[in-house]
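Below: protein 1.
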Amino acid sequence: MVKKWDLIYDLREDVKHVRRVQEQSASSPDDGFSSAPFLFRSQEWWAAIDHGSIERRSVEGTITEAQPTSMVDRPVFRMRTQDGSELTGLRYGDPTRYVEGLHIRFDYVTVQRSPEAQLDLNTTADVVISVWIERSHKRTPYLHSFYASPPGPI
């Protein structure tokens, strides 16, 4: 059981990513999110999450792999959930915090894509809103040299 968690990513604070998603949704409706019933990351959107009308879900498990991949601009990690499932996800926040053996929990919501979304896209998308990692002084050291600077969330 994890005694203390560190919040390493919070969508509420990720202004750059949110601006990019909102602009993409406005300029490319075939590739963005629907603004109904709420604009992505608006005060109303967060209120709906906080009050439960947009369901917040969590996935918890143990990081099983956190090595660099060929996707330098989209660093990934692997985890094993409590039910034994294996998942691969993007590293949000500080990528050096993803250390093999540490526990991780991420919260996400499912949002509707724009009605004009491309046919090859799903009608919904899961959006990570926060990432929590077990408190530890451990870091993934090889990422310091692998990335010129830690990438921002994608």
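Below: protein 2.
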Amino acid sequence: MRTFQLLPKQRKRIPFSAVSPSQDQSMALTNEQKKHFKSIGHHLKPVLIVAENGLTEGVQAELERALNDHELIKVQFRITERDDRRALIEELSKVSRCEVVQIIGKMALVYRKNPKANKNLSNIHRYQA
């Protein structure tokens, strides 16, 4: 008769930065939050258009204003190259400290929580069910 030794289950190691994010990073959105934000974002029109010049000071200022006012915004990118567009979206999320909810074609839906959100302007508060 053969005997088998049961090995203890190996636990998945999670890096410390993933457990307690620094002040610069925000918590990643859950799938439930993303689903809710996508349903809200479907009806939104682009608030910001980023063209070939990229993230200029004017674009960054408007992005900050829009995220502070609306929390959830749609950004349109008028750049033909997919890789350049993807790099610009990543740079935009780092510069503005926001979460990318969804990317479809040349549109990106981004979110940044505002603790003092104006309930009349915030897309999250206006579309609460």
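Residues 29-126 form a domain with the Translation Initiation Factor IF3 fold (CATH 3.30.110.60).
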